[in-house]
Amino acid sequence: METIRIPNSATYSPVSLTDLMFAAPLASRLIVGATLPGRLVQAAAAGMYAGSVISDWASRRGVRKIDFMATFGSDVKHMDEMPPARREEDVHRFSEELMSVYEPVTRRRRVLAGDVNERLTSYIAGITGQRVETSSSVREMTLTRLIMPFASGSCDILSGDIAVFRATGVFEPHILAHEFCHRKGYLMELEAQALAYLALSRSRDPQLRQSALAERVYRNLRVLDGDDPVRYGELLEETPLSGPVLEDFRRLRPPGQRPGPVTTAMRELYDSRMRLTGQNGLSDYDRGFTNFLYTYERARAGSRRTGGPWTESPRHSSGGGTG
Fold this sequence. Notes:
Strand order of the largest sheet: 1-2
Distance between the termini: 22 Å
Strand content: under 5%
Helix content: 55-70%
Number of helices: 13
Oligomer: single chain
Number of domains: 1
Order of helices and strands: EHHHHHEHEEHHHHHHH
Structural class: mainly alpha
Number of strands: 4
């Protein structure tokens, strides 16, 4: 099998190069009372950043990305709407399945990230016939957290630098897989959501599989609650979820959580940015993701009933590079 290695050299820097470029002059001014040292650090960081981006871009040119429509029968612009009753069934079914396999995530993030990255790499390779190997490095803090306080993680799509901002319990493997999808060149949020779910849900590792189930339940709840945190709490109480899993779900959306003006403004800006890049906005994280799974699974079930072929194989992937 062909292997392509993307260096992701920026991800091995002790400090985010992006943060250094933006913060070094200000920090220098505050600490030593002069901006010149900060400017020098900024210039060095910019050079390292540019070198990393160019190296990664050159490596990614040979990557064969998955053609979602050909492979799964659905993509960001082609999905059927899941009926509310089906969403409710999904929540109950997958909540029960989650509780039946649940075990606490005890691995350190560094180890978990390596396991998640390998699982995602193997899953994509099973479709494209090509292993796209990338860094497993993950940061715990970048300036992005201050800009987007509503996010659980972030990925610099140019350098592949990833940060996960807080412990999220059962959700963490899926968050990591989602960000690693961006690192491998899948920039659309729905594609990252879907690939992360499909890779982890078919894993023999219960801690990876349970995370995919949790993400699916959570995203269906987010659609059903109509953007009302109180309603979310009510729906949550009707599920079979319990113990630490239930607490993980509650922490993601506390009943009294109301976005402030800065969070609201940043969410609107991010939604607009997504739409400008051919996506459907922030709804791709939940409504789009669950509609994709609904469409894909219906097509797959229909193929089985009619005896037609259904494979997720190299012949379904596009031959074009990511650029």
